[in-house]
Amino acid sequence: MATVREKDVDTLARQIVAAAAPDAGARLRSTFDVNAQMLRWATARPHFKTGLFRFVDVFPACTSADDVLNHLDEYVLTDDTPGIVRAGLRTAHVVPFGSRLARAGARFGIRRMAEQFIGGADPAAATAEAGALWAAGFATTVDLLGEKTLTIADADAYAARVRAMLAALVSGAATWPAQPLLDRDPWGSLPRVN
Predict the structure, then answer these.
(1) CB-based contacts of 167: which residues, under 8 Å, 6+ apart?
(2) Cα–Cα 20 to 30 A to 111, which of 34, 54, 103, 135?
(3) pLDDT of 30 strictly over 60
(4) Of 32, 25, 52, 54, whose CA–CA distance to 41 is shortest?
(5) Coil, strand or helix: which one is 184?
(6) What is the mean pLDDT of residues 106-123?
(7) Residue 16 scores a pLDDT above 80
(8) DSSP 13-69
(9) Is 190 exposed, middle or buried (0-12, 13-18, 19+ CB in 10 A)?
(10) CA–CA separation, 120 and 168 (whole Å)
(11) How far apart are CA 151 and CA 174, in angstroms?
(12) How far apart are CA 105 and CA 60, in angstroms?
């Protein structure tokens, strides 16, 4: 038999879940949001996720619509690719302008993903975005894209980008408003930039 406290916790948990649930319109929009669906599939299917993100990495180097479609086949068709994605890629090979449609779809999806996950193209923009999230009560993780280095000059350039980003974040974070839930944990104060 549940104690009174357990019932209170259960009731509170149900209220939190109900308050966090999206409205019917948001659920409907999410159902038809191809990017959201691809990310849901990627979350549930590790090989598909790996192939999808490898494709995103190689996409800028593709030179034609046919090249994009061939790379989609190579990277995205894995043992756990959703059937509808498999069917779409098969169809792109046989319909007129299928490779162009595949390239346009890939470009659109990658742009949407970038808008969702990339906070800025330079240290100032990224710091401003991190500051806005902080002010709203969210801590962030910053990852610089383009970390592949083949030469010492590449490594030096990347190290300079990292130093510039850290300097901008440290400077910007000093002006962010106090957020007790983000500034401290049970063991003491936390650095805003780490």
Answers:
(1) 123
(2) 135
(3) no
(4) 52
(5) strand
(6) 84
(7) no
(8) HHHHHHHHSPPHHHHHHHHT-HHHHHHHHHHH-HHHHHHHHHHHHHGGG--SHHHHH
(9) exposed
(10) 12
(11) 35
(12) 14
If you search the block for the tokens 């590449």, which residue do you land on? 154
- 26: tokens are 């948001």
Sign of CA dihedral 155, 156, 161, 164: positive
Measured CA to CA, the distance from residue 103 to residue 29 in angstroms comes to: 24
Convert the pLDDT of each residue in 33-46 to its tens digit. 788 888 888 889 99
- Rounded to whole angstroms, the Cα distance separating 160 from 157 reads 5
Q: Kindly give, in sequence order, each residue whose CB lies less than 8 Å from that of residue 187, ignoring residues fewer than 6 positions away.
A: none
- Name the token pair of 80: 């756990």
Alpha helix (H) ranges present in 45-194?
Answer: 46-58, 65-76, 83-94, 98-117, 123-135, 152-173, 180-183
Query: What is the rounded CA–CA span in Å between residue 155 and residue 34?
Result: 36
Residue with tokens 């990017």: 35
The one-letter code for the residue type at 76 is V
